[in-house]
Design goal:
Length: 153
């Protein structure tokens, strides 16, 4: 039977073991990633020692997917700079990915910034048929997703 002093030592050792185990086997790593609008691939995590990956948090987590074994993080739908879908509408997305390897896990807190890409104007109608050897008039419409002014030259 243990006396009070022995019990206190055992409990203290147990608490130290738990604290040490969490400090040694669990960690959080902050990462920043910059991508251009229109792309889906965000980050490739290292997969040399096995384990598996899963999205574990972040306010924009529903906008991402990750390969459970290959560690490829990507947007479900390519982001559009002019139409941000992140929680606060500033083209900075937050997601947490956990890598679980039997007795240890690492949480990666990612901040993904989406940058603008200059996009060409798009014509509203792309198929035209004009009669040969005839004079014809044609009205053409176009839009620019960046909001730049359209100029005919």
């Amino acid at each position: 039977m243990m006396n009070m002093k022995q019990l206190l030592i055992v409990v203290s050792l147990f608490i130290c073991f738990i604290i040490f185990r969490f400090d040694l086997f669990g960690s959080t790593v902050s990462l920043n990633s910059d991508i251009s609008e229109g792309g889906t691939e965000v980050h490739q995590f290292e997969t040399t020692s096995g384990g598996f990956f899963f999205i574990s948090g972040g306010v924009d987590r529903e906008l991402f997917q990750i390969g459970r074994s290959d560690g490829k993080l990507y947007f479900v739908q390519a982001p559009n700079f002019e139409d941000p879908r992140d929680s606060d509408g500033n083209n900075s997305y937050s997601v947490e990915v956990t890598r679980d390897e039997s007795s240890l896990s690492t949480v990666y807190a990612l901040s993904v910034s989406v940058s603008d890409v200059e996009e060409s104007p798009k014509f509203l109608e792309s198929n035209f048929t004009l009669p040969e050897n005839q004079i014809a008039s044609l009205q053409v419409g176009a839009v620019d997703e960046d909001g730049d002014a359209l100029v005919h030259q």
